[in-house]
Amino acid sequence: MPTNGINKALKLQFGLINHESRYLTAEAFGFKVNASASSMKKKQIWTLEQEDQESQVVFLRSHLGRYLASDKDGKVSCGAEHPKSPDCRFLIVAQSDGRWALQSEPYLRYFGGSADYLSCFSQVIGDDELWAVHLALHPQANLLSVARKRYAHLFAKEGEISVDSNIPWGVDSLVTLVYLDGKYCLKTCDSRFLSNDGKLVKENTRATSFTLELKSGKLAFKDCVGKYLTPMGPTGTLRSGRCSKPGKDELFDLEESHPQVVFQASNKRYVSVRQGVSISANQDVETDMETFQMEINKETHKCMFRTNGGNYWTLVSHGGIQSTATEVEDNTMFDIEWLGHRVALKASNGKYVCTKKNGQLSAASDSVGDDELFLMKLINRPMLILRGENGFVCHHKSSNTLDANRSVYDIFSLLFDDGAYHIKSVGGTFWYISCSGLVCSDGDKPEDFFLEFLEHGRVGIKGKNGKYVRGDSGTLKGDSATVDSSCLWEY
Length: 491
Description:
mainly beta, Trefoil (Acidic Fibroblast Growth Factor, subunit A), 4 domains, six-stranded antiparallel β-sheet, 49 strands, globular
């Protein structure tokens, strides 16, 4: 689902919560479904698929890749490998409170129930047939207006969110969705909440809480008086409009937010495209011209660097590095070597990128010395939310450790320090790794952690002990010598 932008729209994944606050669960045994789970883990996550953009028919795919289905007698199963059967076709009937009723398209009956007693046989919508929607995707994203084809960003001077960016660039374009009691708040990178009158406020109130609605695979945000967020005026100020029904102006896509970084070379100057097509380390300030988007190839795990003009770094003749590529190709791929406080970049010719005397970058070195080392700083994650293979990272209720399997998340602060990062907890204390290998959250002084962007959308976190942070039986530990799936975190 490509947009006018440079990123892909996120596939909508969510948990469905019934009237007893239990999640719809897909079991591997017999492909049965129930509504018994009290929190959202892997088995409780559903992916929404659509027949096409125009159709209102949806399919619900479980974590096992099987589709929810209902037969003419209302018997519910989740074993279909393909959504070809009419039994897999559902319609979403959104209610005023944001909950969904799921209606079988061929039989016009509604899906509901509790525990092991689920059926799709009711002819009317009662409390049993209503499901609250809890988004399961990573809550930090870029927000694209469908009608304007522009991105939302913090306009700090006016104290508002404007929807007028051609590309989502820099930390200002990061939007964090905060889920509270079935409603969503939009949080800016400076930790303020969007109110329905368009103002940004420090505290979360009724006016900052929105109900999420879906229409043709797009999102709409309904406020506490039934009006929808829409971009208004020449700068696209994001606020509630007059409409009580979402049209194209009220629809948005969530797109994944790639990491954006600045590089400082051995000459202490920032790598920039300010001087034209050549990539050179010759600037003393960080602006959009010195910011590069890291895009990691899903298959090769090699990295591309995109400029704010939309071009990629590419290797040209004689080892030069320029920003002239408009498409991804072999010469735009770089390997990153993670060397603690610094990184080295290897181009497709097998040579390391070095900084020449005049500041220009060139892939001409066979080994890594001072001229091949770069300080790399992540600039668009001041707030860190981590999701691993079993859920989100969250403070443990009664100790100084961290859980790694929660359906709710805590928001941590990420502070940069000379190539390392300090992770600050909600209460103002810092993460550290104890002598027993547990990650603790009550440190008085900051401890160095290193971020390694190892896969598309996932980061490895290495402690100062040289070990990776992993989720182990629901607890966060910093004791892994190698990287496996338990050490990779959506961020």
